[in-house]
Predict the 3D structure of the following.
Amino acid sequence: MKLQQNSLKRSVIYAVLILIAVAMIMPLLIMIFTSLKGDAEFASEVKTFLPKEWKFSNYILALQATNWAVYFKNSFIVTVIAVAGSLFFNTLSGYSFARLKFKGRDMIFICLLLGLMVPAQVTIIPQFMIMKSIPFFGGNDIWGNGGNGWLDTYASLIIPELSGAFGIFFARQFYLSFPKELDEAAEIDGCGILMRYFKIYLPMSGPIIASLGILKTVAVWNDFFHPLVFTTKEAMRTVQLGLSVFQGQYSVAYNLQMAATMVVSLPLIIMFFVFQKHFVQSLLSSSVKG
Amino acid sequence: MKKLYHTILPYILILPNILIYAVFVLLPLVWVFYLSFTEYSVISPAKWIGLGNYKAMLSDSIFQKAMMNTMLYWVGTIIPIMFIGLIVAVLLNSKVRGMAAFRAAVYLPGIISSVAVALTWLWLLNPTQGPINMFLELLGFNTLDWLQNTKTALPAVMVVGAWTGIGFAMIIYLSGLQGISDQLYEAASIDGASAVRQFFAITIPMLKPVTFFLLVTVTIRSFQVFDLVYVLTGGGPVNSTTTIVNEVFKAGFQEYKMGYASSLAIILLLITMLITLVNYRYGSKQDV
């Protein structure tokens, strides 16, 4: 009797889970199947869930329709440099705040923490003006007048991403958990400040590099707001911006739209399935409290 | 010489971060405050107008609409996100098979960019050929132009927003659940407490800190909603889906009213700070 009740309970649990999972995944399945349907299928009266004919050529058509190579190159460059650079600078700062003593350390750190509270959208207007006024760049004079500064350059998309209050905070927390004896032993062996970072702290940073790296990669690759504000030239477009423009240009070619959407999302989807455990870990790390 | 090196080195190590932070966060933060008290159209220098922008806000019906929409979006997304997130997490935590697959299915919408999400739903909600209307027609219901109808546009955007956020809540809840000791449930079982009773007497109270964290995080995020709205509806029809950030963008980068846009941004900052303070006041007492 008890067993029967239990197996009934299990079935209900699975039924609810499957229902929710299917509902969640359905839009993505429709996106994929739509991307593979031929033009004729859209014109016909009979609509099917699966494509009648699987047109993988849609992907080639969608990719040829606009300058995707340029957009992918841009997104790739921006993401790789922003992620690698921010990981390096954030762990370096985190190490300093956690392990080195210097005047004003705690004051500076509290100032940094304030940044955690400021949404990117709040500072976007002055940021735009600062980007426009970077001296000596983009035709600007020493006072930052006359040209476009860093607007329409990789710098505008990369440089602000290199710092990050959260990354520094997180790295500091991580290094604080290291035993102090580690430093003392290293110091006796004649290991200097920099050497300790490179020889001890950085090699042991695997878990935070994975977590921060994933969070940053997703944030930068998926960023739409900053490229929208900081770039206007087609040559500087990232994939997200490219996708939104593509939607406007091919507004009735739904199959090509969905193919492009799929291609733009694919790098992160693959990354998610390869590093699923780390993805989950990275999300949890974002919820640690100080 | 060695002494000097040791005094200076820590500053050099944090310099790149601090410099970027100062130029692209702190300076803009001070500047946006200043700009919010000015009239500034980029072409001519900023003109001090005191509280002019804030007064204008009070009579700006579109801003009030944006405020209202943002609040509605917040309520309309946070409830399904946390409720469904909790249900899935609790079910997954009951030692089901294929947990990784379920988790992946529920979380996947959360890693796709908002532009990709918006494009997918533009097609799903397409009035003439979209799968949702096709399905409704099949069942004999009336079809609607979801995103171009002032009554349905905002709810449609909310559905999309909730769809992308559930996975995050599920994962955070799941980790919270895994932190609850089995012994609590065993003891309750011995005392004869039913599963429902256990859920309300053990699970819910033990998850309080996690719930609080999600409440704060999801709230802050939903007040920043922009990309989805921008691509799905552009804020229309007739401003029925415009949000605070959408108005900041419109005022700043389409109408070049940088001063007014700054004052709108300050409102967003104040709301965010208020939520963070509440978090600090009531959240720090509980340990995650």
The longest helix of chain B spans residues 2-35. Chain B is about 70% helix and 0% strand. Strands of chain B lie at 38-39, 47-48. The mean pLDDT of chain B is 91.
